[in-house]
Every structure is written in structure tokens, then in C-alpha cells.
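Appendix B. Extra example for self-study. Work through it before the problem class; the solution is given directly after the inputs so you can check yourself.
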Amino acid sequence: MENNFVIIMAGGIGSRFWPKSRVALPKQFIDILGTGQSLIQMTYDRFKDICPPENIYVITNESYSGLVKAHLPQLDDKQIIKEPLRRNTAPCVAYAAHKILATNPDARMIVSPSDHFVERKDVFNEMMLRGLDFAGKNDALLTLGIVPTRPDTGYGYIQFIEDQNKERIYKVKTFTEKPTLEIAKEFLNSGDFLWNSGIFIWSAKSIYKAFEKLEPEMHEIFAEGAEYYNTDKEAVFIKKAYTQCTNESIDYAIMEKSDNVYVLPADFGWSDLGTWQSLYEKYEKDYLGNAVSGSNVLVRDAANSMVMVPDNKLVVLQGLDGYCVIDTGDVLLICQKEKEQEIKEITAEVKKRKGEKYL
Amino acid sequence: MENNFVIIMAGGIGSRFWPKSRVALPKQFIDILGTGQSLIQMTYDRFKDICPPENIYVITNESYSGLVKAHLPQLDDKQIIKEPLRRNTAPCVAYAAHKILATNPDARMIVSPSDHFVERKDVFNEMMLRGLDFAGKNDALLTLGIVPTRPDTGYGYIQFIEDQNKERIYKVKTFTEKPTLEIAKEFLNSGDFLWNSGIFIWSAKSIYKAFEKLEPEMHEIFAEGAEYYNTDKEAVFIKKAYTQCTNESIDYAIMEKSDNVYVLPADFGWSDLGTWQSLYEKYEKDYLGNAVSGSNVLVRDAANSMVMVPDNKLVVLQGLDGYCVIDTGDVLLICQKEKEQEIKEITAEVKKRKGEKYL
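Solution. C-alpha cells for the complete assembly:
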């Protein structure tokens, strides 16, 4: 148990949830499900029984360290790992691995996003412990694969090679980026594809070795600071290290290239809450299928819509089917709920025409 | 000229323009066309060459007298006629007629709404003068009939009996309330129907006599105060008089019952701006047919929509066709533009569920 570590990655800006998620207050710091807890608080709570509380770390952009402290006041300062620059998940994982390894050479790590949704915590808990056990015994990079329930084109897929091992942890054959609907349907029917959850489990040593082998330059950058981790020289060293790092995802840098990648199929009611559509699916809905956040909303013949507006604003909706209506006070977005790609294009257009102000 | 009087009726609450038009600030006091002038200011300006400025009166609910003064500071206090209660247009006209008659027994009056739109002011001017000339020579109640351009089901219609008189002012055969689309099409094709503009022209004596004959009770109420008009006892008298009046429109009380009603067909680009749809028609539109008021609106594939939002709010619209999007800060309305009946039902529902606060 004392060798179990959890690294919660909380540096994202949640741009697909614009305008609710903003650069200054991204999705993980919002109570977007209306549960009374932000997503990062819910994530933290899920890991409480997995490891000692002092072994839970949050790694985030340094600009969000105040938000992390505010949302998770139980964390000690040293449990908040600050990234000086946004360099995607590969440097983030490398940094965390070096730091944890310097703390405990026998560490087993879970690396998890901070802004996902899990419905069945007991199953989640069991999977995490099973994964940590496997990672402690094998030089393997383990990823959590979600048993797919629909041909979702918004997720990456993992193909695995089924065998009869009693741990039900399987060798990964391929990673696939977001497929077309046709291919997604084939994946679903084949039965040997899982959704890529972005939750990883490995020993600190195994991921260290993987970087050493597959990303030697990035490995070298972080290895040079071995003596500085967990000292007051760490911050200065990391600042320099990050400027040298390329922007790469852990999937691209390690998982897709490694030959000791395994997947643990899991089914705990997971969603990455990556789009308005996926948030809509998790929301309680009225009999017309409207998910409404806002205490002053009059729905007339609107249906299948996601409505998120201030409580003190009277909002009257008529004749809408399948829309997002998001009012944040300074921004109003009305768009078709299933046009997920739109949000990305919209924020790009907003940035181009209005600058950073509304992002 | 000195016998010409204009009575601008400005007591309405403009409920069909909710939420932009509010009980506390109705449509006539809003620069709803974005011209820099409120509708009542535009209305006043149209009558500047019709009569001496001291002969233009505004009659309104007493709660709006401050707004009238603010919008038309050139008016003397005595040119603002205050109604103590809302009793529709019949008491309003009767009151004004008695008051004007006490001022000038030879007065000819134009009675006009304060919140309509006129495109061709020169034609309008000519029609008003022609109508006043006719009213000065005949004991007749003259109404302005607009040559219809489409089978609009939102207007009342006036059927007239065409003859060869050189003034081109015709006897009215019938008044018809808002027709069905089928009937409106027949009206349009027949060529002997006009839209009821709600602009009336008559001598003070003629309308006085019409009330005397057709609404003797209401006539008596106002006749009793003959000695008080234009004195400091007028307000107290009127307060009592209004409590005795029934709620009736001038159309119903007088025009539909009288046998000396005439119509002057006119074509000066008129709209009653009675609905969001009719406002939309008068607005400048982008190439996709969107009428946008708000300096921070990003229209993606939206079309044929009426958008009225605060300048400082970023509004992004995607996938809307034919909608109204009206954001007033405290209220957001999204509804299909052509569902005019909806607004009435919506405000009724808002009143029922939220009280007067948002009306």
C-alpha cells in the first residue's frame, strides 16, 4: 500500500467545454455535473482507498496551483507538482516518474486524468488495485481499457489479444485514433477493441525504462536532474528542463511504440466528459430529454437539449431539438449538441476574431 | 394649420416584443430599430410638419409620463395627457377629444399609435394632410388603410367600397379581425381590402358626436367634466372618470358601429412592428438573412434569425434557422421567429410561474 502512488493530471484547459470551461477556470475545477463537487474533487475521492493520502500527487500547470489548493486543501504543497509550460502528457509523466522514483524506488503509479467521470466506484477501486498488483509484479505498461457500449467516434480504441490468463489482463495489439463511424461499428462488433481511458498503471521503474529506451532525449533531460528532485532546486531545474522538451502525448511517445503494453478491460460506467454530448448523457433529463442546469428555465417544446445557464436568469426555450444553450454571463453559445467538432472551430474563430478575452 | 392636432397614443406595454419590451420600458421608448431614435421619437418627428408643435399631444399611462418627457423634452407638460388607468383606446380617444374640443372647437385630430414604422415620410405627410382636409370638410371618421402587400394574418382588414371620387377616400364596408391565411389570401386577391393601421383622422366635433350616439355612457362620463378640461381640476376629474369607463377599443366602440366611416388607402411602407417577425423584416440583414443587433455576435451557419443581444456579450450561433435569440441580461428568449402566438403564451406562463418580475 505504501508503494502505491497516484498522479492526477490537471493541466488541461478543457477547451471542448467552452464556454463553460475557460482557460482561467478549466473543466476539472468546475462542478459541471451539479453534484456539489468539482471533477478534480471527485477524482481525488476515487483514489482515497488506493494509496496513503500523502501519495496522491496532482501535476498541473503552475498557473493552476492555486486552484488545486483551493479545491483540494488537504494536499500538502509538495503534493502539487507544477509544470512551468504546457508540453502535453509525455513530459508530464516523465517528470512525475523521476520525482516519484526519487521518493520511492519501489513505487507503483497510477496516472489519471482529473476530469473524467466514473459511475461505479467499487468496480473502479477493484480495477485499480488489480492493476497495481500486476504492475508490481511485471515490467509492463498497463492501460485501462473501457468495454465499449456504442460505436463512439470520439474515443481512441485499443485492440487486445485475448488469452486465458486468470488476471484478465491482455497484451495490446494496436492503438487506434478516433475512427470513422463505420470503423467504430466494426470495432464494437469484433469484441476485441476497448476505449482508451487515458488511465495508466505501471511501476516507476518500468516507465523510467520505457522513456530511456523509446524517448532517450526526453529521458536524458529529466535524468540530468536526479539530484534535484524533492529539493529546493527542483523548480529551477524543471523550468529549464521543460523548455527543452518537445510537445508530445504519452500515447504517442511511449504507449504506441512499446512492446510491453497491456490492457485491463474495465466496465465501471466511464466517460471522459469530453464533449457537451457526453456531459448531456450523464445528466438527469426531463421527460423530453432536456438536461437543464439553471433554476429559472422555462422549457416549452424544446427537447434533447443541454441547457446550462445562470440560476438568476430567466431562460425561455421554444422549438429547439438537440441543442446546447450555454450562457456564462459574458458568453452565450447556441449550437447543435452533436456537432462536437464545431466547438473546436468556434473557439479557434473566437480566438482569431476576439483574442484571448473570451477563451 | 392651427386647427390641426395630433394625438400620439403611448400607453401600450408592447407585450408582443417581450422580453425586449417590458412593462417598465415598453417598445415605444426603445430604439428597437437601431436608428438612434426610439419609436416615439420617430413618430413625433413624422408629425412635425402637420401641425404647430404645441398641438402635438402624447396620451399615455401616468406611469410613463416621465419616459415621455425624457424622450420628447420639447413637449410642454400640458402636452402630456396622463391616463390614470389602462382602459384601452376608446376612453383614451374620448378623453383626448373632449380636451382638444375644449381647447379649439374647430380642431381636426390625427390619432396615431406611437410605436409604428413608416418608411416613406413624404407620402405619409401627404396622406395626413389630405386626411385632415377631408376631416375638416366632412362629418366623417377617417381611418388610414394600408395597401396590403402580403396575406398577413396578424393585421385587421378594412373592406371599402370603391367609387370615382377624386379625393380617393372611400366608404368603409366592414372591419375584419385577424383572418386565417386562406381568408387573408382572398382579401389580398379581391383588391378591396386594406390593413387597418390604427391611424385615425377626424374633427373633434365628429368623434364627439360619434361617442354621443354610439357610446352614450362613456360620452356622458367625459362630458360631465366639460368645465374641468385644461384646468387644475382636470386630473382629479379624470381619475374618477376612468374608474367608471369600461375597457374598450376605439375600433370596437366606434369604428365598427358607425355609418360614417371612411378609409384613405395609403402606401408609405408601413409596419406596426407588432411582432418579432415584423421587426425582422425592417432590419438590415446579412447575406444569410440574419438581423443582428449586438456588436459581438459570431454567426456560424445560422440563417433567417433575429438576434438582439447586449453589445458586450459574445454570442455564438450555430445551426439555427428562423429563430429569435433575444438576450436582455436578465432574460434569454430563444424561439421560432414565425411562432408569433408563442410570445403571448410565453409571457402568460412567465407571469403565472414567476410573477411580474420579468414582465
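Self-check: The longest strand of chain B covers residues 193-203. If your reasoning did not lead you there, revisit section 3.
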